[in-house]
Structures are given as structure tokens and as C-alpha cells.
Design a protein that fits this description.
This protein has helices at 38-47, 49-58, 94-111, 131-148, 162-175, and strands at residues 2-5, 8-14, 24-28, 66-70, 78-82, 116-119, 154-159. By secondary structure, the protein is of the alpha/beta class. It has one domain (2-175): Leucine Aminopeptidase, subunit E, domain 1. Strands 1-2-7-6-3-5-4 form a seven-stranded mixed β-sheet, with helices on both faces. The longest helix has 18 residues, at 94-111.
Length: 176
């Protein structure tokens, strides 16, 4: 599914984010930028040691913030590492932190003149964020950003499995 908001095409797709050829892919990182499981582990594995070398120099990233490194051996030239919140009960600022993770990633891409970006479903794996709530925040943040900013022409949401894709698809229909 795709939708055009001003100059920006927002797309949903099922797949492997490490195979994306957008200018930048987003990594659902941990605060220590230490690599890990899921998307984080896959990106570090596919991208090679240059990504970890730069992560070590940066040192860390607070929840809701974003930092940028090389893409190493990935097709994407850059990786934006952002830290989504661990979901507890939705009453501990999780929504704002997740929104910040998406917004700060988009802002960082724009500041670096990167015109295309691919996101995973941040915080929906081991961090336990309910997929429907995460989809709403992710898509609304990207739509709002596209309405008020120019320069990013393509925002892709690369969803790991069909079930997650369907949740995002349903949420995008509701938001439009």
C-alpha cells in the first residue's frame, strides 16, 4: 500500500530491512548501541563491523533519540539508530517516546539531506509494544512530518511478517 502526502510517498511493504536500497534504513537499537537481537542484530550482521565501530565511538543513544552511522556493507548508505521504548502499560510515556523515535529519525534524515528512509516496526518485537498502537504512532508521525516538511520523498515501512503488515495496512486506512 502507498499514499502520497505532499512531496512524500509513504509505502508499506513486507520484507527484510537489510535489503532496502533507500538512502538510509532505521535500526531499532538499544540505548548502548551494542547490537542485539531482531532488527538490530540483522542490521549489524549484514552491515559489517564499520557500523559497530561508529556506534562505539558515539557511545549510546537515549530512548526516543536518534544517531546516524555509515551503512557499512548494506545497500543503504546510512543507518539511523533510534531507541524505542519498552512497553510496560502505556502509562509511562511510551507513546511520546515512540513518537520521538520516529520524528527524530525523520529529522536526522532531513538534516543529512537523505531523501528516502526505511523503518522497521520499532519497539514491537522484544520491547513488547502492541502492534496496533505502534502502527498508529508510526504512521501518524510520518504523515504529520510529510505534511509539514519537504525533502524526504520516500518513507517506507518494512514489516517483518504478513500479520504486522496487515495491522499497519488497517491503521493507514483509518488515518486517511
Amino acid at each position: 500500500m502507498e499514499v502520497k502526502i505532499n512531496e512524500t510517498l509513504i509505502m508499506l511493504d513486507c520484507g527484510d530491512i537489510t535489503l532496502e536500497d533507500t538512502a538510509v534504513i532505521v535500526n531499532a537499537a538499544n540505548e548502548h548501541l551494542a547490537g542485539g537481537a531482531g532488527v538490530d542484530g540483522a542490521i549489524h550482521s549484514a552491515g559489517g563491523p564499520a557500523i559497530m565501530d561508529q556506534c562505539r565511538k558515539i557511545g549510546g543513544c537515549p530512548t526516543g533519540q536518534a544517531v546516524i552511522t555509515t551503512g557499512g556493507m548494506l545497500r543503504a548508505g546510512y543507518v539511523i539508530h533510534t531507541v524505542g521504548p519498552v512497553y510496560r502499560d502505556g502509562k509511562n510515556g511510551e507513546a511520546e517516546l515512540l513518537q520521538n523515535a520516529y520524528h527524530n529519525s525523520l529529522k536526522l534524515a532531513l538534516q543529512n539531506h537523505l531523501q528516502s528512509i526505511s523503518f522497521p516496526a520499532i519497539s514491537t518485537g522484544v520491547y513488547g509494544y502492541p502492534k496496533d498502537k505502534a502502527a498508529h504512532i508510526a504512521l501518524k508521525t510520518c504523515i504529520d512530518f510529510a505534511r509539514t516538511n519537504t525533502g524526504i520523498h520516500l518513507i517506507r515501512h518494512i514489516l517483518f511478517d504478513r500479520r504486522t503488515y496487515e495491522v499497519y495496512f488497517d491503521e493507514l486506512k483509518k488515518l486517511l
